Amino acid sequence: MQGEGARTMGYMLRVDVWHGEIPLYTRVEGNGDPIFYFHPAGGPLWNPFLDWLAQRYTVYMPYHPGIHPEAPQAIHKVKSIEHLVLLYEELIERLRVRPVAMFGQSFGGMVACEMAAWRPDVTPKLVVFDPVGLWREDAPVLPQWMIRPPHELPELLFANPSSPAAQQFLAVPDDPEAAVKAQVALGWAIACTGKFVWPLPDKGLADRLPRIQAETLIVWGREDKLIPAIYAEEFGRLIPRSRIVIIENCGHIPEVEATSEVIRAVSMFLGVSADVT
Amino acid sequence: MKIVAFFQNPYRYLPEGFEDKYPSVVTTPYFSLVDPEKVTEAFHWHVEEVLHAVRMGFDGIAVTEHSQSSYDMAPNPDLVAAIAAFISQVEGYRCAIVVLGRALGKTHEPLKIAEEYAILDHLSGGRLVAGFPVGLSYDASLNNGVPPMEVRGRFYEAFRLVTRAWSEPEPFAWNGRYWQFPFVNIWPRPLQQPRPPVWVPGIGNPETMSWMLTNDAVFAYLSWFGLKLTGQRIFDRFWSIAAEKGVEANPFRVAYLQVVAVGASDADAERRYRPHLEYFFRKGLGAIPPNWLALPGNIDIRGLEAVVRDPSDFGLYLRMREASYRDLVDSQCAVVGGADTVAQQLEEIVRTHRIGNLVVMLQFGSMPLELAQENIERFAREVMPRLRPIWEDEGFIHHWWPAAASMHSARA
Asked: What is the pLDDT of residue A26?
């Protein structure tokens, strides 16, 4: 999968956290107040929405441990989701930034919620796109992106897998060597994030969501086949100061499949202009 | 050479077209597909088949573990192994009881495995071979909820815990990453001390092979993927890792599983075994979704890259759901024929790859009890005597065989 192409000149940061034992890599793009974006299970994929965000903010995208090619074995040092939260907390402190918002997509949405719940004092705003982490008996959520075979992913992720946006997101490099690397990177990203959602993504987040003090925007694709849109209500019910935006004709990744609507909703929420300069 | 008869416990009456509709494991609907009386029959036939091999004088019998499976209804093989252990002991057959085995990367209860194996060792008078698979990916992770990324780490910790529990004289505390116990002091401990021989099934992961050599475990290549397609690379890999470690190329370090069918002649074998072979491979292994053999995190990133570049370790497996009888025989997924044909092929296999423990699967798929018994008898009478003497005069000692299990399992 691609999703490359930020318009700004970014860079990669490395901070060795946890008594120097665990290297954390963070991609940084853009200019402005700092925002943290936690990527989904498929990995640290850039996308046009993030391009827009990076024109107004400095976007920090931490790579989930194990995903950066220089340190694939780092995943084995991270024991639990609580441990992951502590690592990211240390990262943010070491970077000496005060994020004005936390963003997260899917698995990253769960991480952003956990960050906001564990440290309500340092998370002024929270924006989550189709986050995992809750459970309803009448709509069970399994980590289907790990269980279904890879060729079923497009159908699972998108309402319209043949749309240009979806196709671009799913595109495999032409070069065979690059294609192998991309396939391995995707598989390993799903493996590393998957450690914390197996066998079911409910790891007690419901108990912690009420701690969130941040103004929260919950965005959901109506046709999300991985996590049904009724979960937006669940997150909304448990997060005290939250509002919900459901995007029609859209699947699990609204920022890719419905970029303009997401930009509109987020710009209103953050109080910034939607226009692309 | 040692010859072990290996048995699974399949449901033998799955309908035509089953493999086009269902996976054979994990989510296979139970009540709509089975006749409960046929499940009862399956369990009785399975035990009969195992005991028949005991009484026909095989060096050992083997069973294995699969949960939530239509092709091997054996969530705990220790139960059937206990029957074989006891009956063989009272009837005077000194075959090895090879449980191949309880999956340590899958389990949530490693001490229970240590305890059950100890019981089996006593029931059999010290004839247990302790098999420890890492755990098939879907079995450990979909059936038993273990995160794929943790399976291997759990295997290593469980192995250290089990082997220590078997022999440590004093009660000890265990503070591991995955398990904590204030007192480990199991009753009973195995008769074979400090531990029974350990065999570890694998399908070619070099990390597992290296671990087996370091921990003095037999590499049991349980493969249904077609030896002609995979054998050379897998065994070459194992023996070259052994050479790198300075370990002697003792053939008794290796066990190999082969599906075998013996008839009155080649034509007779093809005619009578063919439908059962097709059933087994298509409805059983062939109906496991390939990605369930390697869920994300089950293989390390280096192994993942190796498999993406070259999936040949999987042999015929990716096409198995539609494999023809010819495909299966030509690739040696199965060795089928009259006694001469079978003996010749098996002799070539074991000599080429230096296999000191041949594990033969003589019941498969829909094969009914009577035919299975015939296959067991034909193999025991007409093939086994020709294979037994292999490796006998070459000076290798079999360090991975229970002392109480006799050289050839005639009545004691």
From this structure: 98
CB contact under 8 A, B295 and A146: yes
Is any Cβ of chain B less than 8 angstroms from the Cβ of A191?
yes
What is the crossing angle of helices B301-309 and A176-194, to 10°? 140
Q: Quick one: tokens of B269?
A: 């074998």
Q: Which domains does chain B have, with CATH numbers?
A: 2-387 (3.20.20.30)
Q: What is the pLDDT of residues B45-97, one digit of tens each?
A: 999 999 999 999 999 999 999 999 999 999 999 999 999 999 999 999 999 99
Out of B153, B296, B309, closest to residue A191 by CB: B296
B156 to A55, A63, B78, B142, B294: CA distances (angstroms): 49, 28, 21, 20, 18
Under a CB-based contact definition with an 8 Å cutoff, are residues A102 and A112 in contact?
yes
Burial-class residue A266 by CB neighbours within 10 Å (0-12, 13-18, 19+).
buried
Return d(Cα B358, Cα B409) in angstroms, integer.
15
Q: B130 near B194, Cβ under 8 Å?
A: no
Which two structure tokens, joined as six digits, stand for B23? 């996976």
User: CB–CB of B308 and A76 under 8 A?
Assistant: no
A83 touches B: beta carbon within 8 Å: no
Residue A217, both tokens: 């925007």
- Strand, coil or helix: A261: helix
ipTM: 0.94
Concatenating the DSSP letter of every residue in B218-277 gives EEEEE--S-HHHHHHHHHHHHHHHHHHTT----GGGEEEEEEEEEESSHHHHHHHHHHHH
Whether chain A has a CB inside 8 Å of the CB on B374: the answer is no
Tell me the per-residue pLDDT of B330-359, one tens digit each, with 9 for 90 and over: 999 999 999 999 999 999 999 999 999 999
Interchain CB contact of A225 with B (< 8 Å): no
Environment class of A70 (CB within 10 Å of its CB; exposed 0-12, middle 13-18, buried 19+): exposed
Distances (CA, A) of B162 to B6, B80, B124, B137, B190: 24, 21, 20, 21, 11
Residue B207 contacts A where some CB pair is shorter than 8 Å: no
B202 forms beta bridges with B221
Structure tokens at A274: 């939607």
Interface check for A140 against chain B (CB to CB < 8 A): the answer is: no
Pick from B141, B288, B291, B310 the residue to mutate for testing the A interface (most A CBs within 10 Å).
B291
Across the interface, whether the CB atoms of B149 and A72 are under 8 A apart is answered no
Considering only CB atoms, B301 lies closest to which of A72, A150, A194, namely A72
